[in-house]
Design a protein that fits this description.
alpha/beta, Aspartate Aminotransferase, domain 1, three-stranded antiparallel β-sheet, binds pyridoxal-5'-phosphate
Length: about 375
């Protein structure tokens, strides 16, 4: 390669332009915050909470410190704890499972659909136990699973349905948005998420006023709502601060546009990739994903990844080890989960962010079609 051939790389994630688009609003909001001095809670946080609830189609939103707390406090708020099992997909970010254990309950692992890699009503049924009190449906990579089938099953078996929507702000299934299907929807606003803060943040959306009261207490040292010294629960400190709420309110106004851009980019990947070599994770019928991650399946992943890297293309893996095989959680496993285990060996996440150039998608797809071998030799 001569100096003239040198091309700049394609980063896995680049949020510079997302940040630039909201910078004027964020600066104005932060200036107002400096004047008001309401750094935690206050009007800015309440404003974001009501905007988020309206966006999701729920009656309420409660801001918390991060997505893990959103899940953990929701479980506790719904009264789930020691002696209860919670069904979770094995193919998810570890926090889904971590939250169950933090709440004192026992995770019960379910396999995922071999094509969409999402939990299904059938896989929940296969994992069902008499002690199961809830199921956490994870909207992995930005896609909601078949929420009609899952909510029907959950209702019939008396399971509470909780949505882990950390990767799916704005995704829909049928006519409802992520967060509006279950007893509660839990969001992470980690900076790289579709709706990301400039630090850690999270929220729970729900239409259950009793859960809201419990969450408001749990996030603030167990204080009964409207009191200062009346600590009625063992809570924690998981408050959302105004500094992040300003960012989140500004970004929420752009989320639909950014999600549309992600959908277009994913469409281009699907059009260009050779599925015999690099197969995009299947779309869930009935849903409209927001493509937090662009995940394909390849054979000989480490070699493929290395060759992409040598060509300046950065990739990720979500996730290389399914949760039931992780050291702290193996003790809760009960046999093999073949679809999740196979996925963990094959998945490769390609560059994906709203301002990714179409030319870069073309470059990634063409390179991948060349370097990936046949998946079914
Ligand atoms: C599916 C899923 N659940 C939960 C979380 C936890 O969120 P946080 O990192 O904000 O605690 C994340 C994000 O990292 C996630 O991707």
């Amino acid at each position: 390669m001569t100096a003239l051939d040198v091309r700049s790389g394609v980063p896995f994630l680049d949020l510079r332009r997302v940040t630039d688009e909201v910078a004027p609003d964020v600066r104005a909001g932060w200036n107002a915050l400096l004047e008001s001095g309401a750094f935690i809670g206050g009007e800015v946080v309440a404003g974001f909470e009501s905007d988020l609830a309206a966006f999701c189609g729920t009656s309420y939103a409660v801001g918390v410190a991060n997505g893990t707390d959103a899940l953990h406090l929701t479980l506790r708020g719904l009264g789930i704890g020691p002696g209860d099992s919670v069904i979770v997909p094995a193919n998810t970010f570890v926090a889904t499972v971590e939250a169950v254990v933090l709440a004192g309950a026992t995770p019960r692992f379910a396999d995922v659909d071999p094509e969409t890699l999402l939990i299904t009503a059938d896989s929940i049924a296969a994992a069902m136990l008499p002690s199961a009190k809830a199921v956490i449906a994870v909207h992995l990579y930005g896609q909601m699973p078949d929420m009609d089938a899952i909510s029907q099953y959950a209702e019939a078996r008396g399971l509470l349905l909780i949505e882990d929507a950390a990767q799916a702000q704005g995704a829909t299934f049928g006519t409802r948005r992520a967060g509006a299907y279950g007893a509660a929807g839990c969001f992470s606003f980690y900076p790289g998420k579709n709706l990301g803060a400039f630090g850690d943040a999270g929220a729970v959306v729900t239409s259950d006023p009793a859960l809201v009261d419990r969450l408001l207490a749990l996030r603030d040292h167990g204080r009964a709502v409207g009191t200062h010294h009346d600590h009625v629960l063992v809570g924690t400190n998981s408050r959302l601060d105004g500094v992040q709420a300003v960012v989140l309110s500004a970004k929420l106004r752009h989320l639909e546009d950014w999600n549309r851009a992600r959908r277009d980019l994913m469409g281009l990947y699907r059009e260009l990739l050779d599925p015999a070599r690099a197969a995009p994770v299947a779309e869930q019928a009935g849903g409209r994903g927001v493509h937090h991650l662009a995940v394909v399946r390849v054979a000989d992943r480490e070699r493929v990844r290395h060759q992409l890297d040598a060509d300046g293309i950065a990739t990720g893996i979500h996730y290389p080890v399914p949760c039931h095989l992780m050291q702290p959680y193996r003790r809760y496993a009960d046999g093999a989960l073949p679809a999740a285990e196979r996925a963990a060996d094959e998945v490769l996440s390609l560059p994906m962010y709203p301002h990714l150039a179409a030319d870069d998608v073309i470059r990634v797809a063409e390179t991948l079609n060349q370097v990936a071998g046949s998946r079914h030799p």
